[in-house]
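Quick question, first post here. What does this chain look like in 3D?
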Amino acid sequence: MGCTVQHKNWYWAGLSTVLQPRVGTVRCLADFVFDICCSESQDIAGQVALLLWQIWAAGNDVIWNDTYHTSTSIGRTTLDAWQQWQEVHKHRSPSVVQHGQNKVQVWEKPNESWLKYNVDTVFHDRNHITSFACCVRDSRGQFIRAQTKW
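> Answer (accepted):
Ran it through. Tokens below.
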């Protein structure tokens, strides 16, 4: 959280004023994210989640594809993706939104000697809280560990 490169990502994503004041006030990234989810709007929390995902994806690009991204491109991609998401969702009618009733998804095992970490989050608008759940399984589909948290 104290990395100057990350601060540039925050700037280009338009989130510096939200994230910078928290540097040094929390002990780990989980507390950092939890504080944002507890004290910021759902939109800001969503933007931060998208930025963290973009940073993670850019790191994977370096490791797996030898492709490097600038702070400008990470931040701008985050901002553009968030604006596109907002644009798409403002045109959706609530009566058309499906909550998975007609979707059939089958969990697939990870490759041999790998673990699969499934995560889901929920924003509870009425209560102004966020929760998450995660589950880890091995390549045989055997349960390793799980956690839920508000």
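The chain is about 45% helix and 20% strand.
The first helix runs from residue 4 to 12.
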